[in-house]
C-alpha cells in the first residue's frame, strides 16, 4: 500500500518516511527493496520490534544487502525506562559493530569505511532522519 505514495513523492529529498513493522519477514521481502529504490523511505530500527541481539542481527543481515546502511535510521530508543537507555544503546552498537567486523573480515568493507558506517549507525543516521 506504500507504492502509490512512494511513486508520487518517494524521490522528493524534502520528505522522509520512516517505516516500522511487527512482521520481521516484511523487512527483507517488501520494505528493504522499496527503501533501496525510493530515497525518501527509511527503515526504522529493529530494536523496537526484535528487542534482542539475535533479532537485531537478523535485521542487519536481511535488510543491508538490499537497502544498504544509509536507507535505515540507525538506532534510536522508545524506552520509558530511562535507566535502560545506555544498556540498550550499548547492545545496538555491539551488534552493529559485530556485523561490520564480519564485513571487514570477509573483505566486503574496508576498515576505515566500517568506522565511518559504525559512527553513522550509532549517531549520524538518527540525527539526519529525525532532523535533529
Describe this entry's structure for a reader:
- There is one protein chain.
- The chain is mostly helical and 132 residues long.
- The protein has a single domain, classed as Alpha-Beta Barrel (TIM Barrel), CATH 3.20.20.
- It is 61% helix and 5% strand.
CATH topology name, in short, is TIM Barrel
The overall strand count is 2
Termini Cα gap: 29 Å
Q: What number is the mean pLDDT? A: 90
The assigned CATH architecture is Alpha-Beta Barrel
SSE inventory with pairings:
Elements: H1 3-9, E1 17-19, H2 24-37, E2 41-43, H3 47-50, H4 53-67, H5 85-105, H6 111-129
Parallel strand pairs: 1-2
Helix pairs in contact: 2-4, 4-5, 5-6
Concise description?
It is built from six helices and two strands, in the order αβαβαααα. With 132 residues, the chain is mostly helical.
Highlighted features:
132 residues, two-stranded parallel sheet
Amino acid at each position: 500500500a506504500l507504492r502509490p505514495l512512494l511513486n508520487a513523492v518517494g524521490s522528493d529529498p524534502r520528505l522522509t518516511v520512516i517505516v516500522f513493522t511487527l512482521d520481521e519477514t516484511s523487512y527483507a521481502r517488501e520494505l528493504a527493496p522499496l527503501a533501496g529504490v525510493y530515497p525518501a523511505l527509511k527503515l526504522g530500527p529493529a530494536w523496537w520490534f526484535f528487542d534482542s541481539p539475535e533479532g537485531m542481527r537478523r535485521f542487519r543481515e536481511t535488510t543491508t544487502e538490499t537497502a544498504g546502511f544509509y536507507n535505515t535510521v540507525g538506532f534510536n530508543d522508545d524506552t520509558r525506562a530511562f535507566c535502560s537507555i545506555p544498556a540498550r544503546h550499548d547492545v545496538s552498537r555491539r551488534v552493529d559493530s559485530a556485523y561490520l567486523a564480519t564485513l571487514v573480515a570477509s573483505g566486503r568493507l574496508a576498515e576505515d569505511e566500517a568506522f565511518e558506517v559504525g559512527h553513522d549507525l550509532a549517531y549520524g543516521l538518527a540525527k539526519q532522519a529525525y532532523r535533529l
